[in-house]
Amino acid sequence: MIRSSHQGVARLLVRSRSRNHPLVTSVILAEVRHAHAGPSRLPYLAYHRAYPSRKGKEKEIINDSHSTPYTLYASHSSLPIRGRLGELGLAHQRRSFHATARRQAIPLIPATIGILKSTSVLTAVTALSRVLISFFPIGTLATFKLTRGVRWLSSEDQKPTVSAEAEEFWRMWCEDEKGIRPTLKEARELLEGTPLPHGGIAGPDGRISYPTPRAPSRFNKARQDAHVFDPTIVERKPDMCKGELNKLIRHVKKTRFFFPDLPPAAVPYYQALSPHVKEEVDSLRRYWISLRVFKDNLKVARWAMATLLLLPFLLVSGVYVCGLERVPLTGRWRIILLTPEEEDTISTSLAGANWYRSVINLLTTEEKPAPPIVPIEDWRWRWVQSVLRRLEAAVLAECQGRPPPYGGTTIPVPPSTYPLKPRPRVSSRLHSVLPGGEANSGKEHLEIGPPYSLMIMEKDERNAFSYGFGGQGAGGIVVYTGLLDSILREGTDATRIEPTSKPVGFLDRLFSSAPPPPPNPVPTESQTLHLACVLAHEMGHLLLSHHLETLSQQQVLWPSILGLTMDLTRAFIWPLTFFLGPTVNDALANVGRTSADELSERYGQIGFHWKHEYEADLAGLRILSLAGYDSKAAVDHFSESVADLHEINNVEDGDESLTGRMFKLWTWATHPTPHQRTEAIRTELDRWMEEAEERGR
Question: Are strands 475-480 and 464-468 parallel, antiparallel or unpaired?
Fold first, then answer.
């Protein structure tokens, strides 16, 4: 029935091709509506209506207020009725697709860049750069050779002496002409041509090819005539193998040229010249075309040298630009050349108990083992852990947009332009920017970092340090008992002694042989604030991913830079040392490679940069305020003990080598003084107060 109605409509359209009758229009509309009455007639329409979140063109059709079932039906390209409805003015005029796809694709750029900022891409780029740099010495020698050839050919001794008539003709008609290189077929035919004076060869078509002159060698004076065609080549040609013949053909193609045709207006004047003047004109044309060939080759060589020199730096710089990102809270630009997946691999390798093993392995040396771990039953564990968990709760509340769990402070903490947020994976970035995605799509399982692991070690040194990156305990803080003892010695007069053991009865004391455990000291608020300052500073390093930045720079960035620098240095000095033979050059290469590997191996785990210390101080101050501690009172503790903390490194204190002394000097020069760090904290507090006053107005 539906097919018959379609056929009827088609016949009606054929009859009414030349007229537009209202009756025809009503019949067509009735037929189309009747065809639409069945639920299975428009399966694509049901599909569109079942998925109202469709994007692009389909969404425009479905959401168009003027769209009706028959217009959707008529706009379907598979229906033959569509063209006839268009003639009647009934076909739906589909709006042109609004070109928003280009703007929607812009957020995909940073998500795609996340794939490029990886160690594998940097390794490939570095390898390619080293290959390009290896051609630099050969290109340098070739450029010097071409420069010398241009200088030789531009001299007055090589310029032909001609009459004024020949000079005038050349300037008028031939000054800007360029030679024509022979093709492979023409070069093959020239091998059987007739040799002429001045090294020319007459081809089968009558055209004459001329050689490009070569500068005489300082070591071989006969080289100047090496370009002249050897007549015996024709006789030796049958005895040549295919490889020798092809090499000779390519040589002819590369070193010879034809004169271009003269302009039609110049031909009568050229024919009117005397044979001697014609020969002078030809000599001028040969000279200036050869000089232009030399200059063009020199220009190409210089561009090639610039490419060999700049392209490696552009490629490596492009990878570095892909690794740029903003540091949370401070907004400083930094480079991390690790993809989110590589960061996730590092975090997974340190998660759980692996973090404790890594710390013990890091502190274990050949001379002595790692310091012993304080038993978990020690009361100092509960004290340090309670302070750490309080700081972590404040950070999580800030990241989740909840109010501080421990109340406000005397100075309100202003919102940050660059808030703390988890480091996303590439998949989450793509999910968040693809059509239909949400801002938080794919970020459900990402973690900001806390809760962190904690380890208290028995050592008299007044120090604490952070280590690791990521959630699930992949990052944590190590505290030495020497630091805790120094904190507990502050204000001993105010320290109360409070027993923490359960009360025992008379019979227990009577039959018990062991002495009662000593009471545990209860830290004061000032001592707890001092400890909170230390832990907040180390949490700042973890939250800002300073360890990841150090790993990226010292284990990925600097080795690549050192390797490229050594290769470039060798490339520059190779033209001066290649006369010494491969032994000396290989020795220089091994020395450079060993120096780069030693710097990367021994001094890769260097102490944190002074910017890291400033950022950790400011982040720690913010954490303290969010956790309900007095930020003004914490300034003194920052200047007393937090500024004296130092990170672990692989350089021995007794290393008196040149590199060891340079490293120590660099550390002393870049590590900020306690006074500088205290002033930075006071400046930050003043800024908070000013912003609080502005918001209160």
Answer: antiparallel
Q: Where are the alpha helices (DSSP H) in 475-580?
A: 481-488, 506-511, 525-543, 546-552, 558-577
Q: What size, in residues, is the chain?
A: 697
C-alpha–C-alpha distance, residues 293 and 212, integer Å: 8
pLDDT at 591: 63
Spell out a b/e string for 522-558, using b for 16 or more CB atoms within 10 Å of the CB, else e: ebbebbbbbbbbbbbbbbbbbbbbbbbbbbbbbbbbb
Is residue 347 predicted with pLDDT exceeding 70? yes
Instruction: Give the residues across from 498 on adjacent strands.
Output: 520
β pairing state of 475-480 and 453-457: parallel
| 271/208 same-domain check | yes
Q: Cα separation of 600 and 557, whole Å?
A: 10
Which token pair is 693? 């006053």
Question: Are 341 and 280 within one domain?
Answer: no
CA distance 623 to 684: 13
Residue 437 is assigned to a structural domain of this protein: no
Report yes or no: 543 and 420 within 8 Å, Cβ to Cβ: yes
* Residue 441 pLDDT greater than 80, yes or no: no
Q: pLDDT value at position 420?
A: 85
Shared domain check, 545 and 633: yes
Show the 3-state SS of 67-134: CCHHHHHHCCCCCCHHHHHHHCCCCCCCCCCCCCHHHHHCCHHHHHHHHHCCHHHHHHHHHHHHHHHH
- Lowest average pLDDT, out of 526-535, 595-604, 621-630, goes to 595-604
- Could you report the per-residue pLDDT of 451-481, keeping only the tens digit for each? 899 999 999 999 999 999 888 888 999 999 9
Interior angle at CA 449, CA 353 and CA 443, nearest 5: 115
Residue span of the structural domain in which 520 resides: 333-424+445-696
Q: Please state, in angstroms and rounded to a whole number, the distance separating the CA atoms of residues 562 and 597.
A: 9
Q: Are residues 77 and 140 in the same domain?
A: no
For residue 457 the two structure tokens come to 């070690």
What is the phi/psi pair of residue 605, to 5°?
-90, 60
Strand order in the sheet with 256-258: 194-195, 201-202, 208-211, 256-258
- 209 - beta bridge partners? 201, 258
| Amino acid at the residue 651 | V
Residue 23: what residue type? L
The whole-angstrom separation of Cα 177 and Cα 170 is: 10
The average pLDDT across 286-314 equals 90
In this predicted structure, the answer to whether residue 89 has a pLDDT above a threshold of 70 is: no
What is the mean predicted confidence (pLDDT) over 628-641?
80
Task: Verify that 86 and 144 share a domain, yes or no.
Answer: no
User: How does the average pLDDT of the chain come out, rounded?
Assistant: 74
Q: What is the spatial distance between Cα 368 and Cα 365, in angstroms, rounded to a whole number?
A: 5
Q: Looking at the structure, tell me whether residues 615 and 672 fall in a common domain.
A: yes
Residue 230 burial (CB count, 10 A): 10
Residue 602, strand partner residues: none
Cα gap 643→671, rounded to integer Å: 10
| Amino acid at site 628 | G
pLDDT above 70 covers a percentage of the chain that reads: 62
What's residue 659's pLDDT?
A: 52
pTM of the shown model: 0.66
Same domain? For 139 and 225 the reply is: yes
Asked which of 145-159, 319-333, 398-412, 458-472 is least confident by mean pLDDT, the reply is: 398-412
- Residue 429 placed within a domain: no
